[in-house]
Amino acid sequence: PPLYKQRYEFVKDLVRKYKPKRVADLGCADCTLLWMLKFCSCIEVLAGLDICATVMKEKMHRLTPLPADYLDPSERSLTVTLHQGSVAHKDSCMLGFDLVTCIELIEHLQEAEVEKFPEVVFGFMAPSMVVISTPNAEFNTLLPGVTIFRHPDHKFEWDRAQFQSWAQDTAKRYDYSVEFTGVGNPPAGMEDVGFCTQIGVFVKKYPQTREPVKCEKPNEAAYKTVSTLSF
Ligand code: SAM
What we know:
Blueprint: H1 3-18, E1 22-26, H2 32-37, E2 45-50, H3 53-58, H4 67-71, E3 79-84, E4 99-103, H5 111-125, E5 129-135, H6 160-173, E6 176-183, E7 197-204, E8 224-230
Parallel strand pairs: 1-2, 1-4, 2-3, 4-5
Antiparallel strand pairs: 3-8, 5-7, 6-7
S-adenosylmethionine binds next to helix 1 and strand 2.
């Protein structure tokens, strides 16, 4: 399967394993991952955040409830909310999540945004689990035509040592543990370069001590709500 599907399947496997009820996808783009997660019956709340409202709206219709979703209303309730905003800003609508995913997001962030990102995601949102994926620069030698970065919008691409040291510093600062893996196996004989996509899975060390704070005052909101669907 193509690499993006392997990344989404990786997240889906984690969801099947840990059964989070509330999942937020940061940098959700056209909401494909959210759409896939909608079929995981453990999930009750799904939220997407992206800086670009246009890309979020492109295929948003896929998230609307299907007739079958109403046939057995006893099954579960699912609320999907899409927000336009930056991961560099805090908004209380992102509090209380069990899993936060950041798939191929960080390499698109400006330097100032990368600096704020850990405090927003790990310090403020503080979910039980965070998944971050990003290209592994060491794999680039195997990709024909890639001279500097894989995509013109990438602000950086980290090798494994760079990603892992950033992730370990972040985990330490916010009381998480982190383990590394990836998707996209290198060809036989080239195993040294590692996975094409590197992934860090962060788990919060101490269980939630406070109740999630809910935002009631709209003037506190840094994000704009693009869509809310309940079914
Ligand atoms: N997660 C999706 C996936 O794996 O297919 C999309 C990844 S796409 C390469 C990166 C996304 O991050 C884009 O949709 C972009 O608009 C979004 N983005 C860039 N900077 C952002 C920011 N500061 N806050 C939130 N989203 C941002």
